[in-house]
């Protein structure tokens, strides 16, 4: 129906400045998006308006300038750094006599190129179908042609109605398959919750360095590149954190200003990992001049996916691109880590990140030295079942000296359910038993 334009097309870029901050887009970021899509930009046409023009978005004179640029450079596509209505796309296409793509369609196109897993491809297709359903009216020239023929004459079903029905059926089918994927994810989350395994989710503006950081922490080989939306498919890996034990680290898709709502809706299952995480690692490209705006945009998207209240640890990445910045941990008034300065590319400051994670997540861990008499072999077996024994020795009287580490929830449950006086076995002079 709408063939995605092939990478390598010749394009004219159109960008307008608006006084309203909510309608304003970034030209440099738009050029990076175009480059990520594999499109060759021949010329950039800019202008200023207070409000979008109803018919052409850019105004009559500017629209004619775009059409002249298309003919001059022999471009075959016009890319707008804004969201266009279906009628505006249709009018500009008629004037320029070439394909017109708005910002939302461009981002969807990049996502379609990046999707690698079956789930990711389904999510992108669903987002494309949502967006396409509003643009059917300009996609055909024969929409009102009735089905007919001998024995089949009558009102019938218009081509537009047929296409909409096919789209609806396909969208329903994809939603059902994504629901099955979501149920599988929920089962995995419930299993991790029962096992007291915390989930840490990487979030941040696109191209902030999340995948590079993910790779160096987990020794994984997730695709990482200096381009927008290099990562699309979610990846989960186990990591070991001192005083915490096992944890799950999730690498997620990068955010961008004015992220299309179709994408947010389609990636709901993926973003659930972010919403239900114990801690968010908000990765920031500290060398980017627009870092403050990028942080605000990430916060906006987090609120949209109902993850605005999840605790965050800010990761100031790419300190190697700045002068006189050393890796460090910034803390709040209570001493809690709130910011880590590092370079994922150079591997600088990674040990500080693990230290901060241990402090942020380790508060739920209980550590004790226990002195169990020989009669408490059953209780010793329980600690082994919980995989909570760090060290074990015996004294001259046959007492078992245990150094244990386990989640506070499990410790409280043991005290409540055990017939033995577990707290009575705690050796108050902890350092006298085990180092």
UniProtKB/TrEMBL annotation:
The lineage of its organism: Bacteria, Pseudomonadati, Pseudomonadota, Gammaproteobacteria, Alteromonadales. Signal peptide: none annotated. InterPro entries: EFG_III/V (IPR035647), G_HFLX_dom (IPR030394), GTP-bd (IPR006073), GTP-bd_M (IPR032305), GTPase_HflX (IPR016496), GTPase_HflX_N (IPR025121), GTPase_HflX_N_sf (IPR042108), P-loop_NTPase (IPR027417). PROSITE patterns: G_HFLX. Monomer. Associates with the 50S ribosomal subunit. Belongs to the TRAFAC class OBG-HflX-like GTPase superfamily. HflX GTPase family. This is GTPase HflX. Mg(2+) binds at residues 211, 231. Its main location: cytoplasm. Gene3D superfamilies: 6.10.250.2860, GTPase HflX, N-terminal domain (3.40.50.11060), P-loop containing nucleotide triphosphate hydrolases (3.40.50.300). GO terms for molecular function: GTP binding; GTPase activity; guanosine tetraphosphate binding; metal ion binding; ribosome binding. It is found in: Cytoplasm. Its cofactor is Mg(2+).
């Amino acid at each position: 129906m709408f063939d995605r334009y092939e990478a390598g097309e010749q394009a004219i870029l159109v960008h307008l400045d608006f006084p309203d901050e909510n309608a304003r887009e970034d030209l440099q970021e738009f050029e990076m998006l175009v480059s990520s899509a594999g499109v060759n930009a021949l010329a950039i046409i800019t202008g200023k308006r207070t409000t979008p023009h109803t018919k052409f978005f850019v105004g009559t004179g500017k629209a004619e300038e775009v059409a002249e640029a298309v003919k001059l450079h022999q471009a075959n596509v016009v890319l707008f750094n804004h969201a266009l209505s279906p009628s505006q796309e249709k009018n500009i296409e008629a004037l320029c006599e070439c394909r017109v793509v708005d910002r939302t369609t461009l981002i969807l196109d990049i996502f379609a190129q990046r999707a690698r897993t079956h789930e990711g491809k389904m999510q992108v297709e669903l987002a494309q179908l949502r967006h396409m359903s509003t643009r059917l009216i300009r996609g055909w020239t024969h929409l009102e042609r009735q089905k007919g023929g001998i024995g089949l004459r009558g009102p019938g079903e218009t081509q537009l109605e047929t296409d909409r029905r096919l789209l609806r059926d396909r969208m329903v089918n994809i939603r059902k398959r994504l629901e099955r994927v979501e149920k599988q994810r929920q089962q995995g989350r419930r299993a991790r919750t029962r096992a007291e395994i915390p989930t840490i989710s990487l979030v941040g503006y696109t191209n902030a360095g999340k995948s590079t950081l993910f790779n160096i922490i987990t020794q994984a080989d997730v695709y990482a590149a200096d381009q927008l939306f290099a990562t699309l498919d979610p990846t989960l890996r186990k990591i070991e954190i001192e005083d915490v034990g096992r944890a799950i680290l999730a690498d997620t898709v990068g955010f961008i200003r004015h992220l299309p709502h179709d994408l947010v809706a389609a990636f709901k299952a993926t973003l659930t990992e972010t919403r239900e995480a114990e801690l968010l690692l908000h990765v920031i490209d500290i060398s980017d001049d627009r870092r403050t705006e990028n942080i605000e945009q990430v916060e906006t998207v987090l609120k949209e996916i109902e993850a605005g209240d999840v605790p965050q640890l800010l990761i100031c990445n790419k300190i190697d691109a700045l002068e006189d910045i050393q890796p460090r941990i910034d803390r709040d008034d209570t001493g809690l880590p709130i910011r880590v300065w590092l370079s994922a590319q150079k591997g600088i400051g990674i040990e500080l990140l693990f230290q901060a994670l241990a402090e942020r997540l380790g508060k739920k861990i209980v550590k004790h030295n226990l002195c169990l008499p020989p009669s408490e072999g059953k209780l010793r077996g329980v600690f082994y079942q919980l995989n909570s024994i760090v060290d074990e020795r015996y004294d001259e009287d046959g007492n078992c000296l245990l150094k244990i580490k386990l989640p506070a929830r499990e410790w409280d449950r043991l005290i409540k359910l055990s017939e033995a006086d577990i707290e009575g076995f705690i050796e108050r002079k902890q350092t006298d038993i085990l180092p």
